[in-house]
Amino acid sequence: xxxxxxxxxxxxxxxxxxxxxxxxxxxxxxxxxxxxxxxxxxxxxxxxxxxxxxxxxxxxxxxxxxxxxxxxxxxxxxxxxxxxxxxxxxxxxxxxxxxxxxxxxxxxxxxxxxxxxxxxxxxxxxxxxxxxxxxxxxxxxxxxxxxxxxxxxxxxxxxxxxxxxxxxxxxxxxxxxxxxxxxxxxxxxxxxxxxxxxxxxxxxxxxxxxxxxxxxxxxxxxxxxxxxxxxxxxxxxxxxxxxxxx
Length: 246
What we know:
The protein is α/β, with parallel strands linked by helices. It has helices at residues 22-33, 41-46, 52-60, 64-85, 92-101, 114-123, 150-159, 174-182, 212-222, 239-243, and strands at residues 7-10, 17-18, 87-88, 105-113, 132-136, 167-171, 187-190, 207-209.
């Protein structure tokens, strides 16, 4: 057990990074390009978090024959302009620095395609904080993972050799809570993301956070780093550590 690091697993969109409308606006534009109806804003917001194809089926009723073209149109726009519009949420870089300084291992578990997640984190200057980044298959013509976020969270635990009593998830949607629970780890719900009213409260999570500082406090309370008290000093990742995520 002493070799197991204290691991913090983060969701991406809605937790680390604010898409700033690039996801919902991009989906709406892709639907319009292919002559398909655009759902109301509440439905578009609900599409942030789950796999894109699953959301297009559920919230936009996209016909299977049009699915590949809609996804392609969305991804092209997202890569060309959407990622650049995204921004880290206030206090997130400081939170990551605080946790790294305190001795935590950090990972990302997202249902965004893994290669795209790495590009987004690199663009936002956040990738070097993480020991590993995990996502869905890059080939979006494949069916979504049958267990959603469960296997992605499991991959983060396995890669970092973390025991379940030494790990915690941080996310903004019920999918994050479900992925954590299925792997036997607690989840901290953040209130700045895309959860619908009451969505996180229905999960009866052990902690909630209204800002990044509260999230850090909850991590240190739920998964303390034994013998290494947390520090608020800013410690940049080493070049060797940064290269692992590039």
